[in-house]
Amino acid sequence: MAYVLPTQPFTSDNIPVTRICLGCMGLTGTWNPAEYGLDNVKRAIKAFEAAIENGINFFDHADIYGGGTCETAFKECLAAIPGIREKIFIATKVGIRSGFYDHSPEYIRKGVRISLDRLGIDTIDLYQLHRPDPLSDPEQTAEVLQELLDEGLIKYVGVSNYYPQQTLALQKYLKAPIVSNQISISLTRLDPIYEGAAGQLGVTSTDRRAGAGGDGVLDQCEELKITPMAYSPLGGGWLSGHREIPEDHGDKARLERIFKKMDEIAPAYGNPTRGQLALAWLLRHPAKIVPIVGSVNPAHIKEAVEATQIELTREDWYRLWVAARGVHAP
């Protein structure tokens, strides 16, 4: 019997989304729209089909990915499997322009129309603000997002790279709940696990020595029932175990510590890959993190899905945490 990828409830409506999300940033293999052609479409469809075959129903885009080609190619992916649109959850992001960020109501309203057209769909399941815009007025941003919700152009609102106070500022003016925060978190970036900003209460001297600033994002996610979506869950690919670490890599010592500990605990779990253990470490957190896996390689997609079968013990979770920090738990 084939392994069934587990799901978890998402949003206040408890939509079942898979515990692994396919990140579509590299779907077409180019950031130059002028290079986009049939080979890029074939690449995208192959990855999409592999994700579907392995049970993934959650797909994450942004309007800038591939210079817009990734959303465009996804329309072809949907056409390749008739009826699949109703069975999957599509997320995309808005707000990054060439050299600056833009959460102005005009740009957001324009952006949602462009994404809908490229994707070939009537509504976007999850619409996310890509990065905080220091020049945005949260009240105005919330107003346009609420309008898009009321018009049925989007179903849910999420943010990305938001710190807790930024999330609260937007939520103050938004009637609908913010349902997700897409953040960088992995064994090589621990900041979201810690409370408070660097140097403030909640971050111990041990944590600061370990290079952890702390931003409190996961605590807020648990408090407000916001789902954390983890981009770069394999630390830019270095935690996958598929790449040789160069001698001049700035994080070489830490990666070697992590790998050593992974290799020590792996036999207890049937010898999974290092990448699978890195994903399992995220999946073990009670905030119900959804790792976003950006591979288009069918074998790597399957490998990521199989990581959900690993249930790390509390002791092994902490062993990896200590290896990543470089200091023992106080």
Could you please describe the fold and organization of this structure?
By secondary structure, the chain is α/β, with parallel strands linked by helices. It has one domain (7-325): Alpha-Beta Barrel (TIM Barrel), CATH 3.20.20.100. It is 38% helix and 16% strand. The protein has eleven helices and twelve strands. It has helices at residues 38-53, 69-80, 105-119, 138-150, 164-173, 205-209, 217-224, 252-265, 274-283, 298-306, 314-325; strands spanning 7-10, 15-18, 21-23, 58-60, 89-94, 96-97, 100-101, 124-129, 154-160, 178-184, 227-231, 290-293. The protein has an eight-stranded parallel barrel with strand order 3-4-5-8-9-10-11-12, surrounded by four helices. A two-stranded antiparallel ribbon has the order 1-2. Strand 1 and strand 2 form a beta hairpin. Helix 1 crosses helix 2, helix 1 runs parallel beside helix 10 and helix 3 (105-119) packs parallel to helix 4 (138-150). The longest helix is centred in the first third of the chain and has 16 residues, at 38-53. Mean pLDDT is 93; it is low at 197-211.
Distance between the termini: 45 Å
Order of helices and strands: EEEHEHEEEHEHEHEHHEHHEHH
The tally of structural domains comes to 1
| CATH homologous superfamily grouping | NADP-dependent oxidoreductase domain
Which CATH C-level class is it? Answer: Alpha Beta
C-alpha-based Rg, rounded: 20 Å
**In this structure, how is the largest beta sheet organized?**
8 strands, parallel, barrel
Q: Strand tally, please?
A: 12
CATH topology: TIM Barrel
Strand content: 15-25%
Give the low-confidence spans: 197-211
Placed side by side, the strands forming the largest sheet appear as 3-4-5-8-9-10-11-12
Helix count from the secondary structure assignment: 11
Shape descriptor reads: globular
CATH second-level architecture: Alpha-Beta Barrel
Name the structural class. alpha/beta
Q: Which bin fits the share of residues in helices? A: 25-40%
